[in-house]
């Protein structure tokens, strides 16, 4: 089997770890092209990681050598880019969430099935050592049959770690869709598919002043 040939759309903050791993860690992957609405940023990423081409989105999607599109755009653009990639005959892996709404997500899955293509979504953290160790313990029967599980996470806000966090306060992001998937993925991996899902959110402040200090 040959290498999986990848086109990356979105060269923002999260792209560095993806491009680093795809170009240095895995022998089975080859990044052929990168794209960003800021072409200077795309060209910089291509130069940094030795990617042959920096292309517009249209050029990348029309590239016949690309097998799969890695969608690293902001959440509000996930549906549009994923849909266009599927219509172009490309497999898709997208950063979380799959889309901003359930209806859009279902449409993408339906389109992928219709085209005979695969679509996947972050996070892949359930493949890491921590969750895999838990799964092995559960599978061994060491703690008996689990009947319930809880998960908690907290931090001081994305402005503490992200250089440009504005999009994380808009539709398709926030704690529910940006943080929740990590734990839902782990729990579904451990306990099986969910029959029903509900969610509740609350904003403590109608308006929040965010100050970012960039070095």
Describe the structure.
With 215 residues, the chain is α/β, with parallel strands linked by helices. The chain has eight helices and six strands, in the order βαβαβαβαβαβααα. A six-stranded parallel sheet has the order 3-2-1-4-5-6, with helices on both faces. The longest helix is centred in the middle third of the chain and has 14 residues, at 102-115. 26% of the residues are buried.
Give a short overview.
By secondary structure, the chain is α/β, with parallel strands linked by helices.
- Give the class from helix and strand content and strand pairing: alpha/beta
Uncertain stretches of 5 or more adjacent residues: none
Whole-Å distance between the termini?
44 Å
The description of the largest β-sheet is: 6 strands, parallel
CATH architecture level-2 label of the largest domain: 3-Layer(aba) Sandwich
Strand residue content: 5-15%
Average residue-wise pLDDT: 90
Question: What is the assigned CATH homologous superfamily of the largest domain?
Answer: NAD(P)-binding Rossmann-like Domain
- Which radius of gyration do the C-alpha atoms yield? 19 Å
Q: Give the spatial strand order of the biggest sheet.
A: 3-2-1-4-5-6
Oligomerization category of the chains in this entry: single chain
Q: Examine the coordinates and then state which fold CATH places here, giving the name of the CATH topology of the largest domain.
A: Rossmann fold
Number of strands: 6
| CATH class descriptor name of the largest domain | Alpha Beta
